[in-house]
Structures are given as structure tokens and as C-alpha cells.
Write a structure and sequence with these properties.
The protein is α/β, with parallel strands linked by helices and 319 residues long. Helix content is 24%, strand content 26%. The strands form five sheets. Strands 1, 2, 5, 6, 7, 8 and 19 form a seven-stranded mixed sheet that branches. Strand 15 and strand 16 (233-237) form a beta hairpin. The protein binds NADP nicotinamide-adenine-dinucleotide phosphate.
Length: 319
């Protein structure tokens, strides 16, 4: 028998959608994902240490703990969970047919896509090791930058876009100095964001340079830089490394199914509604939002997607 609603993804958007769908008696099935080296069930918050900006936790909460709590809350209302990834969605007929990574086929009247986006990393071994162990390497300054380990320290941001500028500006509130490492001699960021950063006396831009290694055992101690024009290498001591080199939405499995924008994000054509280009398929969280990208906004859109799905299913006579 077809599921009423299948929720794909297990970050704040997915679990919030599951809580709402379960409480609406839709008996949701959550595909929480199998996990891989760059993605684990629970999403990007699983890579975050302290979360201090999620409302309701005055003392903060760790990313994994927050996700575990959201999961428990969904399961408490009888959301069912499978450890599969969605491999494809056949939307040519209803109910939709979802094929999973474990070679199952699941039929669903409605689908909520909440597979998130992954931060781009340099992909280096030491970078990944220190990011996993809370060693001062992060792809989210707004999440991690205010931690005590970064206070009054020299920090490094990699990237030349608006995110890099925003993160640099943010980090200057805590750091003694922030180096921006950019691979070209010109920033990609909007002029106004550039200006704010370039005029900040705490910021130094290192042009035409890339990070070729991250040094440090338990904590980062320096980055090894290479000047791309001269090939000269040097070590720049620092207490933190923040990558701001873009995100990639997890939508590979949706190509040809729902409309994606040119960067691969799911298009929700009605603005403040969570429906996609395909009736009955909804999206929530970072998979459809390249702009706010916060846990709380993802949770909010997860709630909206579940409410939209509930109303749509009722209109189809599925209760
Ligand atoms: P982005 O605009 O794609 O910029 C990514 C930056 O990272 C670029 O400077 C790029 O260098 C660099 N980069 C990419 N891969 C790299 C690598 N492997 N090694 C070194 N550098 C690398 O991404 P974003 O800054 O995250 O912004 C995404 C979108 O959100 C944009 O549309 C942006 O305007 C928007 N945004 C807006 C605000 C705001 O208005 N407040 C804040 C944040 C983001 P190149 O320049 O050489 O390609």
C-alpha cells in the first residue's frame, strides 16, 4: 500500500516535517539516509559542535544532540524511519515511486524532500580530520565562530564570495585578526560586502593563494599556503580555519523529476509555499534555500512543507 507521505532527509527540516506529519496522523515514513564520508543522517548539524542560535536552548546544545532530540520527538509520535537514501523518484504517475539505495521501491502519495545541502570542503585529509573532531576547522563561522577557542585568536577564512565576506565580518567580532585566503586577485563578493571587509583593520586578504594543508594534531595550529603565481609555500599560524567556498544541494537524485535552479536547488515556485514544480512533491530546508541556511529556518520550512502536504493530501481525499 502506498505511504501517505514519505519524508526524504533527516536534518532539522526533515524531522520537523515528520513531527508535524505524524501529529496530523499521516503516519510518515522518513528515509534518513545511509550516510557516507561527506554526509551523515542528521545533516550538517552533525558536523557542528555547539549550536547557540537555535531558540529554546539558553545554554546551547550540540548539533548531534539537537538532531537526536528532533529524531526522538518524531519517533515519539510514531514516525517510522528507514536508513535508506532515495535513489530516484518516478513522478510520471501517482502514487510516486521512490527507489531507494537499498533497492526497495516505496510508493507515496506525497513526498517531502529535505535532503539539505553540503558545504564544500577543500577535501584534504587533515582538514576533514580536524573538522570531524572539533579541532578548529569549520564550514560555518556563524555556527562555530563564537566558541571560546576562537576568541582573540588569529583565524583564517577561505573564499572570496559573499559568504566569505559575511563570515569574515562576523569573526572579527571575536578574533584578534582574520586572514581571508582567496585563490584569485579579485573577490567575487558584492562590492558593499567587499568594502566592509577590506576596510576592517582586523582583516588581511592573502591574494592568489590556496590552502594546501592544515597543520595541527588535536587543534589546528597553522595552514600551509601556496601562492598560485609563484608556487611559493609558507605556513600561516592560526587557531581556526573557516571554509566559505560554497554549498552543493543534495539533489542529484531529483534531476529530471522536479525543477531545479541553475545551482541545483529545488525551485518552490510559489515563494512562501513549499510545493515544487510537481504537484504532491514538497521541499523544505537547505535543499530549497541557498540564502538563509539556518537550522531554525530549515525547521520552519519543514513545518510548512508538512502543513502543505497535509492540506494537499486532504484535497486528494487521502487521510
Ligand atoms: P559563491 O558566491 O559561489 O563563492 C564561493 C567562493 O569560494 C568564490 O570566491 C570561489 O572562488 C571560492 N572557491 C570555490 N571553490 C574553491 C576552492 N576549491 N578553493 C578555493 N576557493 C574556492 O558562494 P557563497 O559565497 O557561499 O554565496 C552563495 C550565494 O549566497 C551567492 O549568491 C551569494 O551572493 C549569496 N549570499 C548572500 C549573502 C548576503 O547578501 N548577505 C551572504 C552570503 C551569501 P572564485 O571567486 O575564484 O570562483
Amino acid at each position: 500500500m502506498a505511504e501517505k507521505v514519505v519524508i526524504i532527509g533527516s536534518g532539522p527540516a526533515g524531522w520537523t516535517a515528520a513531527i508535524y506529519a505524524a501529529r496530523a496522523n499521516l503516519d510518515p515514513l522518513v528515509l534518513e539516509g545511509e550516510g557516507s564520508q561527506t554526509m551523515i543522517p542528521g545533516g550538517q548539524l552533525m558536523y557542528t559542535t555547539e549550536v547557540e542560535n537555535y531558540p529554546g536552548f539558553p545554554e546551547g546544545v550540540t548539533g548531534p544532540e539537537l538532531m537526536e532530540n528532533l529524531r526522538k520527538q518524531a519517533v515519539r509520535f510514531d514516525a517510522r524511519v528507514k536508513g535508506d537514501d532515495a535513489a530516484t523518484i518516478d513522478a510520471s504517475a501517482r502514487p510516486f515511486r521512490i527507489s531507494t539505495s537499498r533497492k526497495e521501491t516505496i510508493e507515496a502519495h506525497a513526498v517531502i524532500v529535505a535532503t539539505g545541502a553540503r558545504a564544500n570542503w577543500l577535501g584534504q585529509e587533515n582538514e576533514q580530520r580536524l573538522a570531524r573532531t572539533g579541532g578548529g576547522v569549520s564550514a560555518c563561522a556563524v555556527c562555530d565562530g563564537a566558541l571560546p577557542i576562537f576568541r582573540n585568536k588569529e583565524l583564517v577564512v577561505v573564499g572570496g564570495g559573499d559568504s566569505a565576506m559575511e563570515e569574515t565580518d562576523y569573526l572579527t567580532k571575536f578574533a584578534s585578526k582574520v586572514y581571508v585566503i582567496h585563490r584569485r586577485d579579485e573577490l567575487r563578493a558584492s562590492k558593499i560586502m567587499q568594502q566592509r571587509v577590506l576596510e576592517n583593520p582586523k582583516v588581511e586578504v592573502v591574494w592568489n593563494s590556496v590552502v594546501v594543508d592544515v597543520l595541527g594534531d588535536e587543534r589546528i595550529t597553522a595552514v600551509r599556503l601556496k601562492d598560485v603565481k609563484t608556487d611559493a609555500e609558507r605556513d600561516l599560524p592560526c587557531a581556526g580555519l573557516f571554509l566559505a567556498i560554497g554549498h552543493t544541494p543534495n539533489t542529484e537524485f531529483l534531476k529530471g523529476t522536479v525543477e531545479l535552479d541553475k545551482k541545483g536547488y529545488v525551485v518552490c515556485p510559489d515563494g512562501f509555499r513549499m510545493r515544487t514544480s510537481v504537484e504532491g512533491i514538497f521541499a523544505a530546508g537547505d535543499v530549497m534555500d541557498s540564502y538563509y541556511r539556518q537550522a531554525i529556518t530549515a525547521a520552519g520550512t519543514g513545518c510548512m512543507a508538512a502543513l502543505d502536504a497535509e492540506r494537499w493530501l486532504a484535497a486528494q481525499g487521502v487521510h
